[in-house]
Design goal:
By secondary structure, this protein is of the alpha+beta class. Helices cover about 15% and strands about 35% of the residues. The protein contains 5 helices and 17 strands. The chain has a 4-stranded antiparallel β-sheet with strand order 3-5-8-7, with no helix packed on it. The chain has a 4-stranded mixed β-sheet with strand order 4-10-9-6, with no helix packed on it. Strand 7 and strand 8 form a beta hairpin. The chain is rod-shaped.
Length: about 290
């Protein structure tokens, strides 16, 4: 009886020692150690260690982590038209390729978002989102090229893209300028004229012109077809400019005092503003606008 107890303890100690060795060799597969026993008999103890997202049998995971910030996060919040970059790498081993699946299980990133790398073991997800919404991206890194060999534990990145919060003027400008330019009033402020066409940004917004490229003043002017004694000037308007103050002013000279044109001569709709004035006499007219930033 004492001999049998001693034998069982010896086998347990030996098996435990080999298990510890295997924990240090996570890439060994189908290792089958043979234990010698007293009396010349053989005892087979099959043991398997496989690298599938873990560093060893101890359960230490090979994971992805963010690298371009001191406070890593798995949630990124940006606005439509705002540039961002989220970098990541794996712990313990470099990744040579990675896979990104959306919440539908396909490799399709949100419009305007791209994946780059990995370069020196670091992958990047970023760009300028073009569509609002909440997107869940599952990232898996691989130690081999073309998503082969051992892999990391999958990592879920949540990308929240919101519509720009602000006035219709700011939303309009975000279609033409990057986030850095939107933060500079010398470029995208209402009175700025970045395309140097003589039409400031406020007027470009009201007239639905491109503030980043030269334009000419739109509209048609001529004798009113309904009254040959009247001059008619029609100017199309941006439908988003409903919160803007748009109107015509008049003066007897270009250097004189400007005052609002008589209401009976001005017609305003969501899509157009029309000035109809007598041809007789001499007056100057101009279009004036004030927008909310």
């Amino acid at each position: 009886m004492n001999y049998r107890i001693a034998y069982e303890r010896a086998v347990n100690v030996t098996a435990s020692g080999l298990a510890m060795v295997v924990q240090r060799l996570p890439l060994i597969k189908n290792l089958t150690p043979i234990f010698g026993a007293t009396g010349g008999s053989n005892f087979a103890a099959p043991l398997t260690a496989t690298f599938v997202g873990t560093h060893a049998l101890s359960g230490q995971s090979i994971m992805l982590q963010q690298t371009n910030t001191s406070e890593p996060t798995d949630v990124v919040e940006v606005e439509v038209g705002e540039a961002f970059q989220w970098e990541f790498k794996s712990t313990r081993h470099n990744i040579l390729s990675f896979e990104i699946l959306n919440d539908k299980g396909t490799e399709q990133l949100p419009p305007g978002v791209v994946a780059i790398g990995p370069q020196s073991g670091i992958g990047t997800i970023g760009g300028i989102p073009e569509e609002a919404g909440t997107f869940t991206l599952t990232i898996t890194g691989y130690r081999g090229q073309n998503q082969s060999s051992s892999q990391t534990t999958p990592f879920d990145l949540t990308l929240i893209v919101e519509d720009p919060v602000g006035s219709p003027f700011k939303i309009f400008m975000s279609d033409y300028f990057a986030a850095e330019e939107l933060a500079d009033p010398a470029i995208t402020g209402p009175t700025a004229d970045p395309d140097l066409d003589g039409i400031d940004n406020a007027m470009e917004f009201v007239l639905d012109l491109n503030p980043s490229a030269p334009n000419s003043m739109p509209g048609t002017i001529g004798v009113d077809s309904n009254d040959p004694q009247m001059l008619r000037y029609e100017i199309p308007l941006n439908g988003l400019a409903t919160e803007s103050t748009v109107g015509f002013e008049e003066s007897t000279s270009l250097e004189g005092e400007w005052k609002p044109a008589l209401g009976e001569f001005v017609e305003r709709t969501d899509k157009m503003i029309v000035l109809t004035v007598p041809l007789a006499g001499k007056k100057f007219y101009r279009l004036k606008t004030i927008v909310e930033e």
